[in-house]
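Journal club prep — side note

Before the paper discussion, L.F. wants everyone to see what a predicted structure for a comparable chain looks like in token form. Sequence:
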Amino acid sequence: MRINPGKTIAEAELDKAVGLIAAGGVVAFPTETFYGLAADAANEEAIARIFSIKGRDFRHPIALIIADPSDLEALTDEVSDAARILMAAFWPGPLTLLLRAAPRVSLHLTAGGGKIGVRISSHPVAQALASGLGRPITATSANLSGHPECATAEEVRKQFPSASLAILDGGPTPGGKGSTILDTTVAPPLVLREGMISKAAIADILRGGKPAPGSRPTGPRTDGGL
């Protein structure tokens, strides 16, 4: 899925953002769905800062964005054949796969549920952050808990006027639906939230088909963010 990056972000600004994330900071960034909050997924204090900024409790898990499938080695010891088929078909793109979390993954990310949500984003800014850090970044939506997701940098600023938060303005994001969330720890995989990728498109791939044109539509908003 190709995304128009909208406003160009200078390489120096991206490098600065990666440095902030590496130092434990939080950066708002555009994705192929909404704006998200990026923190180092290996830094417990940074993860806790995400929850504090959003006003969210630890009972809710946080999904991640990775730069490359090899990054899964740090997150899970088990990737099903179905998950690999879906990765090949829809990554990079708005498909979050739930995988069995390795014991080394923060319980704050999994909410103690033993599963971690992961995707490779198709947005160039999200890709640059994950690649530059060299580790997974958080992919929770950049909004206060219970408030609407943000599709522009200005909407993020309005929701977080006083937060210690850097914002990468990449222009408007598609908005509409969030990523589709699919649990691949069960057989057959279970769609937990139908987002930008339809259930029909997923079923077709698992039956051996190819993504059909228009299989990733946007539409009315869904709860749950990125």
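L.F.'s comment for the group: The first helix runs from residue 11 to 22. Keep this in mind when we get to the figures.
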